[in-house]
Each structure stands twice: as C-alpha cells, then as structure tokens.
Amino acid sequence: MEAGGADSGISAAFYIGGSGGGYFERPAVLGWWGSHTAVYDFRSAAQELFQYALRTLYVGSGVWQEFGWNSIIYVAAISTIDQEMYESAALDGAGRWKKLIYITLPAIAPTIVLLLVMNMGNMLNIGYEKVILMYNSATYSTADIFSTYVYRKGLLSAQYSFASAVGLANSVINVLILSGANYVAKKAADTSIF
Fold first, then answer.
1. Residue at 34 is within a domain
2. Do residues 38 and 27 touch, judged by C-beta distance below 8 A?
3. Structural domain total, the chain
C-alpha cells in the first residue's frame, strides 16, 4: 500500500505491521496468527461493543424486571407445600439438596410448567418499550424486533396495511407457539392452561 492509496482516507483505522515502504509491506503482529491484512477498524469495534452493550442492557433489564413477579409466584407455590413433608424428610436424614430435589421441585412442577407455557406465548412479543427507548438508526441491526418494525413501517412510513399484516402474522405465530407448548405440557407433565 502506498501512503496516498485508498486506505489513507480511513480516519479511524490502526495499522499494525512490519517494516517496509508505504504504510507497511509485511504485516508483523497480526501476520503471526495468519492475518494478511493488519487493519483494525476502531469504528466497527466501537459499533460491535455498542451492540453488545445494548443486548446486555436489554437482557439484564428484562431479568431484573421479571425477577420480582416470578419470585412472588414461586414463593407462593412453595408456601403451599406441607411442612410435615420437610420434617419427615429431615427425620429420614435428607439434607437441603435432597429436600429440594424430592419435595420442592415435584410440588412446584405444575407452576413451573404453567409459567413456561405462558412465557412461550409471549416469545415474539419482546418488550417494545425498552427497545424503543434505546432505538436509533445506529441500533437498527441489533434492536429491530417485530414491534419496532411495525412501528417504523406503520406509523413512520404510513404503510398501515403492511404493518397490520406483520402484526397479525406475529400474533398468529404466538398463538401457534402457545398451543404447541400447551400440548407438549399436557402430554409431558399433565398440566396445561386449556
């Protein structure tokens, strides 16, 4: 490459290489591991880091948001277990782990299956509000979900019929997933919503 070549216009590129004319004729550091182009583009690295941070923030906030409600449901299910079962297991020499495996989990299994089936019905309905708050043109490739796509096409582009069709297809797919998960739960655990 020559100093006035096409790559000289890249403002955020870092070249790692060996000695030679122009920028570098022989790549040094990255060439040791088989890379013949020793170019590191900081813009793409920053964009990847931003997308990773967006995903981490979204998943972390989703876990934090649902943790309280789910813990209330699971604690309520655990409180219905007869305490005499734990006492008799302790007399038989069962520790905490054995009590969890043989008493607690089988007792709350219907609750676990019920919550799993209900959450499967919302699999494609990801929280629209969190995504739209972090949404801009830089995050379209990472943060574009059905709800934001319908928002962009329906409200911003005024393609109401297309956006309605996408929303209807999303709902139909959710119903099919819910029905399939309910059918599997009915056959496997003898617990279902309907």
1. yes
2. yes
3. 2
Sequence-ordered alpha helix ranges (H) in the chain: 42-79, 83-91, 96-99, 105-120, 128-133, 140-143, 146-151, 160-189
Model pLDDT, residue 43: 61
Q: Residue 124 belongs to what domain range?
A: 113-189
Residues in contact with 118: Cβ distance below 8 Å, sequence separation at least 6, in sequence order: 193
Flag whether pLDDT at 8 surpasses 60. Answer: no
Q: CB burial class (10 A; 0-12, 13-18, 19+) of residue 19?
A: exposed
How many Å apart are CA 152 and CA 137, to the nearest integer? 11
Q: What's the sign of the alpha-carbon dihedral 140, 62, 168, 134? A: negative
Eight-class DSSP state of 137:
G
CA dihedral 55→59→62→63, nearest 10 degrees, is -160
B/e letters for 65-88, b = 16+ CB within 10 Å, e = fewer, are eeeeeeeeeeeebeeeeeeeeeee
Confirm if 132 and 148 have CB atoms less than 8 A apart.
yes
Mean pLDDT across the stretch 74-103?
95
Structural domain includes residue 133 = yes
- pLDDT tens across 13-63, in order? 333 444 444 444 444 444 444 545 545 455 676 767 777 777 788 788 888
